[in-house]
Amino acid sequence: MTKINPWLSLNASVNSKRCNAEHKFNFFWAIDKNSAYLFAIEHRNLEDWSAKKLSLSGIEIEQYQITDGYRLVLKLHDNSDWDLFLNLCNDLLSATTECENEKAMLAIVHNRLQRWQKLFRKTGKKLLSTEEQQGLVGELYFIKNHLFGKYPETEIFSFWRGPYGEQQDFGIGNTAIEVKTKRGTAVSYVQISSADQLDCRNTQCFLYILTLNASPGSITKAFSLNDLATEIKKMIESTEVLDLFESLLAEAGYIEIQEYSETSYVVSQESVYEVRDSFPRLTSNSLPSGIHSVQYRIELLSCKPYEITLNEFSTRILNESTD
Predict the structure, then answer these.
(1) Number of C-alpha atoms within 13 angstroms, CB side, residue 35?
(2) Partners of 190 in the beta sheet?
(3) What does the alpha-carbon distance between residue 220 and residue 138 come to, in Å, rounded to a whole number?
(4) 3-class SS of residue 292
(5) pLDDT more than 90, % of the chain
(6) Which DSSP category does 6 fall into?
(7) Of 126 and 59, which is predicted with more confidence?
(8) C-alpha Rg value of the chain to the nearest Å
(9) Is the pLDDT of residue 161 over 70?
(10) Judging by beta carbons within 10 Å of its beta carbon (0-12, 13-18, 19+), is residue 156 exposed, middle or buried?
């Protein structure tokens, strides 16, 4: 989908315009005297804006007094980064649509900017790659379909270790679960990113594989990364848990933007393998001296003796978590 650059319609004569005339609050696209791209928010009470400092790479945040209140301004240092800046601005617009007053609106803007700050530090202002999006789809699908309804929501997100870069994506009691996705049943292997990923020190360890096929978004069972994240948000009842989930998503490099709705998937298969004994894998101890970093592929046919059913998998992790 082609994006429209709202700043291109501005010039020295008309240097600002409201982003959305129907939005309850005063948000503006604007440019300064040097034609730098700005996003401005006008409000009445200085004390409603948090004193906690924000620092977003490539974006300057200033606030100054105007005739009837204050103007909070986000200034983009390099206009060539307008695409991502537009995503950030649209996120702020979308997140504040339902706010009842300016104080609540500014609190949400500050909170969202904190998440963007975390995202920029994590990804360096880059979007998730196709492979990273697909990997996150796998982890969210696992949360939605294998954890919700079986565990209290206050516990579910304590199991999710993927955003922190730990060895395995989930830890439930003394059980470790590594989630992998692959595209299409014709692909007969999965990529393992390090010698640590299947070097499980837990009592039991599983490799969960989600096979996805690309699909038009119009298909009933098709879903995008944004769809999955939104569905999980709707399943969460507690505000605190929702905040934790959104914080974990930011840790994983995700925030809801249009680009993540452009690819849709359908699930064609779920498989689970128990990683034990002679399961085909590398471990830290098996690497030759002097080798510190490896990536490798596992042929799934060779994993067949270790495959278990989804029902057995669910029973075993549930028993583990309640011990």
Answers:
(1) 7
(2) 298
(3) 19
(4) coil
(5) 66
(6) G
(7) 59
(8) 23
(9) yes
(10) buried
pLDDT of residue 151: 93
Q: How many CB atoms lie within 10 A of CB 229?
A: 21
The tokens describing 56, both together, are 């977003």
* 53-91 as b/e: b if 16+ CB within 10 A: eeebeebeeeeeeeeeebbbbbbbeeeebbebbbbbbbb
Q: Hey, which residues does 60 pair with through a beta bridge?
A: 75
Measured distance CA(265)–CA(222) in Å, rounded? 5
Residue 23 has a pLDDT of 93
- Residue found by looking up tokens 């998998």 in the block: 313
Q: Which two tokens stand for residue 114?
A: 């904190």
What is the chain's percent helix, strand, coil content, to nearest 5?
40, 25, 35
Q: 19 near 43, Cβ under 8 Å?
A: no
Please check whether residue 94 is in contact with residue 14, taking contact to mean a CB–CB distance below 8 angstroms. Answer: no
CA distance linking residue 188 with residue 301, whole number of Å = 7
End-to-end Cα, the chain, rounded Å:
50
- Within the chain, residue ranges assigned H as helices are 82-95, 102-123, 130-142, 153-159, 225-235, 239-251, 310-322
Q: Is 281 left (phi over 0), alpha (psi -120 to 50) or beta?
A: beta
Q: Which residue has the tokens 């939005």?
A: 23
Name the amino acid, one letter, at 247. S
Angle formed at CA 254 by CA 252 and CA 258, multiple of 5 degrees: 165
